[in-house]
């Protein structure tokens, strides 16, 4: 039976943001080859998904914003806030969300509304992290591997949606 037929005949489920079931049953029996193939498909899907989401952000060169040591630590949220959490504000609000699409991946999104700028109303940063092994430590070490930004403009000064393009 071909892979496509196995996938159609199996109890595959898309869960949440596109995670594929890790246990593939065919005729009541687990199929390790199909489970391995499904894992590859899931990894490829996540890579494509992350890339397509990144396209909505203006990429930021990591080497220009912080030293390499500042981009590594035990907590992705703390790392992201240390790099991007100092946006000058005019009494606005800040929201921080952390997602773990895979055990070795984290995405932190920092949204700041009320930026001290006459044309920009808000700025959003997306930071992507991967775990890295550190032989001398048992705790996970996270490394920022990508960052990008979006802005929304003040009324009458440009676009009101989140975009990689600056307002006027």
Task: Kindly describe this structure.
It is a single chain. With 168 residues, this protein is α+β, with helices and mostly antiparallel strands. It folds into 2 domains: 3-54, no CATH class; 58-153, Nuclear Transport Factor 2, Chain: A. Helix content is 26%, strand content 38%. The protein has helices at residues 3-9, 32-54, 62-65, 76-84; strands spanning 14-15, 19-20, 25-26, 29-30, 58-59, 72-73, 89-102, 105-115, 120-132, 141-153. A hairpin with an 8-residue loop joins β9 and β10 (141-153). It is elongated. The termini are far apart. 15% of the residues are buried. Mean pLDDT is 74; it is low at 1-26 and 42-48.
Count of separate DSSP helical elements: 4
The tally of beta strands, per DSSP, is: 10
Number of domains: 2
Distance between the termini: 59 Å
- What integer is the average pLDDT? 74
Q: Please identify, by name, the CATH architecture of the largest domain.
A: Roll
Largest sheet: 6 strands, antiparallel
Task: List the keywords.
2 domains, 26% helix, 168 residues, alpha+beta
Structure in a nutshell:
This protein is an alpha+beta fold and 168 residues long. It is 26% helix and 38% strand. The chain is elongated and about 55 Å long.
List the helices and strands and how they pair.
Blueprint: H1 3-9, E1 14-15, E2 19-20, E3 25-26, E4 29-30, H2 32-54, E5 58-59, H3 62-65, E6 72-73, H4 76-84, E7 89-102, E8 105-115, E9 120-132, E10 141-153
Antiparallel strand pairs: 1-2, 3-4, 5-10, 6-10, 7-8, 8-9, 9-10
């Amino acid at each position: 039976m071909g892979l496509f037929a196995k996938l159609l005949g199996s109890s595959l489920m898309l869960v949440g943001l596109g995670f594929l079931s890790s246990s593939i049953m065919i005729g009541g029996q687990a199929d390790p080859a199909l489970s391995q193939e499904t894992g590859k498909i899931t990894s490829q899907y996540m890579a494509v998904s992350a890339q397509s989401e990144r396209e909505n952000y203006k990429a930021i060169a990591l080497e220009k914003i912080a030293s390499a040591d500042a981009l590594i630590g035990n907590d992705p949220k703390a790392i992201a806030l240390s790099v991007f959490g100092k946006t000058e504000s005019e009494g606005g609000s800040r929201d921080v969300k952390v997602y773990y699409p895979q055990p070795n991946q984290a995405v932190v999104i920092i949204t700041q509304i009320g930026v001290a700028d006459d044309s920009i109303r808000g700025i959003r940063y997306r930071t992507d992290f991967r775990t890295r092994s550190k032989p001398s430590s048992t705790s996970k070490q996270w490394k920022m591997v990508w960052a990008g930004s979006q802005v929304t403009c003040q009324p009458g000064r440009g676009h009101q949606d989140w975009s990689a393009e600056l307002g006027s």
